[in-house]
Design brief:
- With 464 residues, this protein is mainly alpha-helical.
- Helix content is 76%, strand content 2%.
- The protein has a two-stranded antiparallel ribbon with strand order 1-2. Strands 3-4 form a two-stranded antiparallel ribbon.
- The radius of gyration is 21 Å and the shape is globular.
């Protein structure tokens, strides 16, 4: 495990940090700050909901695709991940989480728009993602296969272990439940959902995500309102520590930046290549629509949900306790503000957050297993491994083990995807120009046809 941790530090310190920030800044500039200038359009598009019918087939709506991706984003990263970033990197790590979200929203827009452009029809929805735009757009089968393998390892296996580990830890602290028992119950419920396919995953997430997010935000906002006089001080601590001034834990500027970016990426997934797998399933009239909606998901995750957790932890002052980390720190901070009901509420919230993430992560894996092979046997084995084996493993493994494993997988996956979207990003810029042109002409519902891109029309399976 020491070697995995060392590899993670090398990748994040010397490679991934520069790649993420570099691509994010480039996409922000080339899209003319799309993540800031088109927030109103993002909110307008999100109002389109419900299942759509095309030629007698049912498809995932834009809203449902947003909710499935948000289900994966809003999970342990928002409760346990934020706590870990603060415990190890200090309060300043929160600033770098915000920054990577603001810049990364442009990256999320690019990757999800590409996923829509290169999607292809499937039996019960569209299907697509980085593996598809790498193979079709870059004409690289080996790199597409590599991505499909990496995302399956990262999300459906390593990430699901983190989610179940956090659920088990929260349930043990709040109710004294044996992790073995929690793992067994969680495994059974997960398998029941994932064997239902993407339609069931979408239905579950479209209900779970709004309920859990609203419930958590209501309590978090209430806590902040009751401590409103402390909020300016909290923001002052975050900003001062962000640039190496007076870190509470002596982590140093490097540790603050790295953990802020690490946990920010784990939470919002911008540039990681995960959300495009779900973005591709949506039935929309123009690829840019889903790109804009997925960019909004980054803001929702980090700037809203993560910020609420961070403020509660910093208000409590418990982040200086070296014995508290991960979900236990969040639970203790909540308990200090609302009493004994705090750990129980967090345990219930983390179950909903993490469980929805487990099934969202599972779909990322399924989409890429289907890319590698249409074998029903292989798919069944994958479902058993993702929803069964790794969920149980995560419930019993140590905190350091599951986080080190996911950090390495996440770094390799993100690098692979960044190479692809940096190469194909020019297509997104053309699509965005077309979308903006139609909106300027007063067209409320912009349309795209592959004839508008004759140079790549033969690579597109949809958009006739």
């Amino acid at each position: 495990m020491e070697y995995i941790s060392l590899l993670s530090d090398i990748l994040w310190t010397y490679v991934l940090l520069a790649a993420l920030l570099g691509c994010g800044l480039w996409f922000t500039w080339r899209t003319r700050f799309v993540q800031f200038r088109m927030v109103g359009e993002m909110l307008r598009l999100l109002s389109d909901s419900g299942m759509k019918s095309e030629q007698g087939r049912r498809h995932i709506s834009s809203f449902q695709a947003f909710m499935v991706s948000l289900a994966s984003r809003i999970g342990t990263g928002n409760l346990a991940g934020v706590a870990t970033a603060i415990a190890v990197g200090g309060p300043g790590a929160v600033f770098w989480m915000w920054l990577i979200a603001l810049i990364g929203a442009a990256t999320a827009f690019v990757e999800s728009t590409l996923a829509q452009l290169y999607k292809q029809p499937h039996s019960d929805s569209y299907i697509g993602g980085p593996a598809y735009y790498i193979r079709k757009g870059m004409h690289s089968r080996w790199m597409a296969a590599l991505f499909a393998i990496l995302i399956t390892l990262t999300f459906a296996l390593a990430n699901n272990a983190v989610q179940s580990n956090t659920i088990a830890g929260a349930m043990q602290q709040a109710f004294g439940l044996d992790p073995m028992l929690v793992g067994a119950g969680l495994t059974a419920v997960t398998l029941a959902v994932v064997f239902g396919g993407i339609q069931r995953v979408a239905r579950v997430c479209s209900v779970l995500v709004p309920v859990m997010a609203v419930g958590y935000l209501v309590l978090a906002v209430a806590i902040v309102a009751l401590n409103i006089e402390k909020v300016p001080h909290v923001f002052g601590i975050i900003v001062s520590n962000a640039f190496g001034m007076g870190q509470a834990l002596g982590g140093g500027l490097g540790m603050t930046v790295i953990y802020g970016v690490k946990r920010g990426l784990f939470s919002n997934e911008a540039g990681e290549g995960s959300a495009p797998n779900v973005a591709a399933t949506a039935a929309v009239s123009h690829p840019v629509k889903q790109g804009l909606i997925q960019a909004l998901g980054v803001f929702t995750d980090t700037l809203v949900v993560c910020s609420c957790t961070a403020i509660i932890i910093l208000i409590s002052g418990l982040y200086t306790d070296p014995d508290l980390n991960g979900i236990q720190l969040t639970q203790s901070a909540m308990q200090s503000e609302v009493g004994s009901v705090g750990p129980v509420f967090v345990a219930v919230a983390i179950f909903l957050f993490a469980f929805s993430s487990i099934i969202g992560n599972y779909y990322y894996g399924e989409a890429n297993v289907r890319y590698l092979s249409e074998s029903k046997t292989l798919l069944a084995v994958f479902r058993l491994c993702s929803g069964g084996l790794m969920v149980m493993f995560g419930a019993l493994a140590s905190l350091d083990t599951v986080w080190s494993l996911v950090d390495v997988c996440m770094a390799l996956l993100t690098l692979c995807n960044l190479v692809a979207i940096a190469t194909l990003g020019r297509l997104t810029f053309r699509l965005l120009d077309d979308y903006r042109s139609q909106r300027r002409r007063g067209i409320r519902d912009p349309q795209f046809h592959r004839s508008q891109m004759p140079d790549i029309a033969d690579q597109l399976d949809c958009w006739q």
